[in-house]
Design brief:
The protein is an alpha+beta fold. The protein folds into three domains: about 160 residues, Beta-Lactamase (2-Layer Sandwich); about 90 residues, Signal transduction histidine kinase, dimerisation/phosphotransfer (DHp) domain (Helix Hairpins, Orthogonal Bundle); about 150 residues, Heat Shock Protein 90 (2-Layer Sandwich). About 55% of the residues lie in helices and about 15% in strands. A hairpin with a 3-residue loop joins strand 11 and strand 12. Helix 6 runs parallel beside helix 10 and helix 8 packs antiparallel against helix 10. It is rod-shaped. This is HAMP domain-containing histidine kinase. Keywords: Kinase, Transferase.
């Protein structure tokens, strides 16, 4: 099978196509010329013989040769015509009796054939027997002023000379065809190699891509290879971004998980290093350790949510959900957190909304938005959540009076572990994963999320999700 693998290559198929395009017309031309030559040569020979036979037939009638076949001049002309065309001539009278046979074999015998009978009826018969290679003519013999036939001249002529020329022409045509075949095959091989050369360059580049050469691929030999190069460069660029993001993600995960562990170790070592630790200090250190454990637990839970989201991308447990009730449940769950910070939490529903969504994932996404609005708010601040819908989508708007997001950070807020205000985020206990989880859940619902913010004045998140989930 490996030996036959080349049969599936583009190079071989191009070679075969060009070879066929070059060879087939030559084969058709050779066959056509040879067939045309044979037909034309036989036709010309038939016309020449018919002309000579008619002139001789007129003399046969003039000299009354049918009644007196001893006329020497006619006999000489018959023999001469027979020798010139390498044929046989028979003169047949009205009784179907052969009065003259240039071969001298059937003189005096009776001949009745279809050609002779038709000729007696006034038809001129010309027949070519390609199998036995002879031309046969039957010419009626009659006076110019009479419609009555006195006899028939039957002429049989060999076409061996035509076939000799035919074979000679055939041999020469074959030699020419073989020469053209050699040229065509060479031409086809050259152009097949040349045409697939850009693909070879592409293959070589892809094989060397692991060297991580920063030079971009650009093979502009053809429009198609140029398009492939541009598409590859775009994909390769995205892969590099993904790879960089993956490395950064791993680094961030390692750092985020290591930081609480380091803090707990430092606190535990401090307690162990002291002989008599006051109860107040012991309680304070254990409280700090508990906070670090809670932070570690939150990071792990968020990471698990992200992994679960990635694994089930495109797989939603869709059902018809009352979005109004879902938001009310989220607000009820988060209201104690808001009250501890003295944040006013308001839900405004403009109309009843039911949609085909994954309740768990949508609840997680909206909870993150509302919880962030509470956590990153100012004292005595407010969070306003509104729900509305049209014939195709429902819209959830989460607006707060919080610290806001710097303009340069808005395009990065959905990146994993990204924090616009790192110091404040650590104080609050954020992991930098909430918005990444939210965005992933919204996109899984074929929705969109947008953020508008001004530093120090608050933030507005708008979520748009289709009422009907389309696979």
């Amino acid at each position: 099978m490996k030996k036959l693998k080349f049969l599936h290559s583009l190079k071989f198929r191009l070679f075969l196509l060009m070879a066929l395009i070059g060879i087939l017309p030559n084969v058709v031309l050779r066959v056509g010329i040879l067939a045309s030559y044979e037909s034309r040569a036989v036709s010309n020979r038939s016309i020449d013989i018919a002309g000579q036979a008619k002139m001789l037939g007129n003399q046969v009638i003039t000299y009354n040769y049918i009644q007196d076949p001893s006329e020497e001049m006619i006999n000489v002309q018959l023999e001469m015509l027979s020798n010139i065309y390498d044929g046989r001539i028979m003169i047949i009278n009205s009784s179907f009796q052969i009065v003259k046979d240039t071969y001298g074999l059937d003189t005096g015998k009776t001949i009745i054939s279809e050609e002779v009978v038709k000729s007696f009826q006034g038809e001129e018969i010309t027949k070519y027997d390609s199998r036995n290679r002879y031309i046969e003519l039957a010419i009626p013999l009659r006076k110019a002023d009479s419609d009555q036939n006195q006899g028939v001249m039957l002429v049989s002529v060999s076409t061996d000379s035509i076939m000799l020329n035919y074979e000679y022409l055939k041999d020469n045509a074959l030699i020419v065809e073989l020469a053209i075949l050699a040229v065509v095959l060479g031409f086809a091989l050259f152009w097949a190699n040349r045409l697939v050369r850009p693909l070879g360059k592409l293959t070589k580049y892809l094989e060397e891509v692991q060297a991580e050469d920063e030079e971009q691929l650009m093979i502009s030999d053809y429009t198609e290879t140029e398009a492939i190069s541009e598409a590859f460069n775009e994909i390769w660029g995205k892969m590099r971004v993904i790879d960089d993001s993956r490395q950064e993600f791993v680094s961030n995960v390692s750092h985020e998980l290591k930081t609480p562990l380091t803090s707990m170790k430092v606190l535990a070592d401090s307690l162990l290093a002291q002989g008599d630790v006051p109860a107040e200090l012991y309680k304070e250190f254990m409280g700090d350790i508990a906070e670090e454990i809670e932070r570690e637990n939150k990071i792990i839970n968020d990471l698990l949510s992200l992994v679960k989201m990635d694994k089930s991308a495109g797989t939603l447990n869709v059902s018809v959900v009352n979005v109004n009730e879902l938001l009310e449940m989220i607000m009820k769950r988060l209201r104690p957190i808001a009250e501890r910070q003295n944040i006013e939490l308001v839900l405004e529903s403009f109309r009843p909304v039911s949609a085909e969504v994954d309740e768990v994932k949508l609840s997680l996404a909206l909870s993150n938005l509302v919880e962030n609005a509470i956590k990153y708010n100012k004292p005595e601040g407010w969070v306003h959540v509104s729900l509305n819908a049209d014939h195709k989508y429902f819209f959830v708007r989460v607006e707060d009076s919080g610290i806001g997001i710097p303009e340069e950070s808005l395009e990065h807020i959905y990146e994993r572990f990204y924090r616009a205000d790192k110091s404040h985020s650590r104080e609050i206990g954020g992991t930098g994963l909430g918005l990444a989880i939210t965005r992933g859940a919204v996109l899984m619902h074929r929705g969109a999320i947008k953020a508008h913010s001004k530093e120090g004045e608050g933030t507005i998140f708008t979520v748009r999700i289709p009422l009907m989930y389309i696979v």
